[in-house]
Design brief:
By secondary structure, the protein is mainly α. It is about 70% helix and about 0% strand. The chain contains nine helices and no strands.
């Protein structure tokens, strides 16, 4: 894969910091990804330490599930090369505005890669679907995944198929995928 356009990477990162268009009228500021990143970022490197006040394990799990959903879409074609992974990692770290360190995202991606190798795509999709219990969270996984797919040239047919499988696991229709892809495309052409 050729190196992604840095202006596109910046646009994707900015969009990932913002609430989706369908909730912006509700006074919501910021994306679910960036809010959930705060709890994920507080994770201790050493499990023997008590978590600081304000740590929300559910929010940290939500962050992990959102990143995994996008990771699964990025891996849909079986080729998540170093350039694509570096761009993906950079966008996630940038979108989280310092709430998550680069080494934390790198470690998460390594874990996700190992889990995908062990379990296979279908089982990982099922596990992400189980982790996401609210419709608005499911829609955000689809939006984040669609935006990150644009880093590598847009949503390909095999990426769309993974998005459709995620939507089915969330008990959403393919129209939700259409909406996520359309919002991503519109946001990146502004």
């Amino acid at each position: 894969m050729p190196a992604p356009d840095s202006s596109l990477i910046g646009k994707v990162a900015r969009q990932l910091t913002q609430a989706p268009a369908y909730v912006r009228t509700d006074g919501v500021r910021g994306s679910l990804l960036s809010v959930a990143a705060s709890s994920f970022g507080w994770k201790s490197e050493d499990d023997d330490h008590t978590q600081p006040t304000g740590f929300d394990p559910e929010a940290a799990r939500l962050f992990e599930a959102m990143v995994e959903g996008a990771f699964l879409v990025a891996n849909a074609d079986g080729d998540f090369d170093g350039t694509e992974q570096a761009a993906f990692q950079h966008v996630v770290v940038s979108a989280c505005a310092g709430r998550v360190a680069e080494h934390q995202v790198s470690a998460l991606l390594a874990d996700l890669h190992d889990q995908l190798d062990e379990d296979g795509l279908q089982k990982r999709i099922e596990l992400v679907a189980r982790a996401i219990t609210r419709e608005d969270h499911a829609r955000e996984v689809l939006r984040v995944s669609s935006l990150l797919a644009y880093v590598s040239g847009g949503v390909s047919q095999v990426e769309r198929e993974v998005l459709d499988k995620l939507a089915a696991g969330f008990k959403l229709t393919n129209a939700a995928v259409d909406q996520a892809i359309e919002e991503a495309a519109c946001a990146l052409t502004e």
